[in-house]
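Q: I have two molecules that I believe assemble together. Could you output structure tokens for the complex as a whole instead of separate predictions?
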Amino acid sequence: MNTSPKAPLLEVRDLVVNFYTRGGVVQASRGVSFQVDYGQTLGIVGESGSGKSVAVQAVMGLIFNPGRIEGGDIFFKGRSLLDPAGKKRVRQVRGKEIAMIFQDPMTSLNPVFTIGTQITEVLRHHLGMTKDQARKRAMDLLDMVDINAPEKRLKQYPHEMSGGMRQRVMIAMALACEPQLIIADEPTTALDVTIQAQILELLTDLQQRLNVSVILITHDLGVVAQLCHRVAVMYAGRVVEVGDADQVFAAPVHPYTRGLIRATPRLDMVTERMVSIDGVPPDLISPPKGCAFFPRCDQAGKACLRMQALIALGDDRHVSCWCAAKEVTR
Amino acid sequence: MGRFIYRRLIHGLIVILGVTVIVFVVTRMVGDPVQVMLPLESTPEQRAAFEKKLGLDRPIPIQFLEFMGNMARLDFGDSLWQKRPAMDIVFEKLPMTILLTAVGIGFACVLAIPLGIIAALRPGGAVDRVTVFGSLLGLSVPQFWLGLLFIVVFAVQFKILPTSGAGTPSHILLPALTMGLPTLARLVMLVRSSMIDELNRQYVKTSFAKGLPFVRVVGLHALRNAGLPIMTLVGWEVIRSLAGYSVVVETVFAWPGIGLTAIQAIEREDLILIQAIVFTAAVCVVVINIAMDFIYKLIDPRLKLT
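A: Yes, here they are, computed for all two components at once.
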């Protein structure tokens, strides 16, 4: 595939990731597809174990033993990251053009190195900066993420900082080489509510100022509605609905998306009590043959026992549901 | 930092004091040096004179005070066996044991750390299984037997290394190997398990996501975190080698170190020399412990030296 101006920044196509555990083969990602355009924010939502993290870790080349990428492809700026040459490219790209922020800032930083060492090593490795250059740049970065007294902070260790502060350091580290894509894997889940708001605000602000693309993985639909241009809803290792965030929230098509939205507490609507989705997510060692949501779906029919690929609902909107398909064809 | 050193020195002094009290009491409880040193047919007068020379005729408390005073000056008196200052003998033999320990433990570390890391990279893989099996084998072999086996194979059968003694660099190979192999077996297991723990931590994922080279992530980020338990064991092994294994290994190979000297002193009931050796061993343990605390602090800045 050649680089074309029309290619999205990142495209994940039919990604299959399996984990070979003792209990069996866990099909963590069963044909995930999504794309991110330049300067755009994509939210990925779904419950725990739906394969959100696995999908983005595959992009970063972070699937380790016993996990294996066994199908599909990942294109960054139109070039594959999975073909033989791509595996080499992943190593140059990650940390430089694609950066990642993790869920738990308390454990994501190395406890025995100073903040300064951990930021400057990225700069020195990718950009070949000297010690002095890297230190100056690191101070600028800390400044950018609103950490005061950066000179002092550089000499501190992670345990001398609060969770919010550490997540800011993680963000500074991610920004170090001016990446074009930042993947934030539940960046606020481990933080206090007030700090969550600050971190999200910082991320949005930086996204707009630096015009970087962001993939935001979260459980929080409110955050997606607020920050993301597009949203992909994942269930049992597949994307079940994807599209413009406003449209998806205004008119969810897939029964799972509807259930998720109904299960979210809202302040602006005095409605009946929150409705949860009955049942539990399927076992990914032996997922259902057809639609994985079938056992929990109130609109299920016979057709649901067969697999439904993503179908276009027009305008960059896709859904994987037979009921919706009927609606479309009707 | 000054406070730390001060406190540690006080602790160390207490330990050394305790050890010397025990040595003092025990050496006066077991056996009578006068009977051992003098011929059977010696007269009571001769015995009394000899007792007086050693100061054994005076009351125990006086003996003890004098003993402590002399100890402070590192003066334990003349060895009954070699008729020269006991500390001179210790200072002559100790370097040989330190050399043996350094080569043995150094050999163990140089092999155990890379091997443990490689095993940890693929738990259950071929290298891992061979390493774990070899390590269990090494743990179950008694050290003296290992030494004899080495002598039989390398010295008697192939005649490529000397059986015993010291002098040329090749003399140190077999005793050092015997000293280091059990340590290697224990160390490799620990490096492996610590590295498996560390490699599964989130910061390792972060380091990879930062695009850092594999060698840096594993050999610097993860290894430094695994360093605390590893150094704890290394310190322990150094102590055990200096003040324990050396006795066995040096006896098997007739290596002229402090361990062999200790055995000889015990055989001859040379209590002056025994006291000097035990005292030296206690000092070594204390010094190594203090050194280990500094190394901990270097590895993990979260630790506070108190």
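A: One point stands out. Chain B touches chain A through 21 residues (CB under 8 Å).
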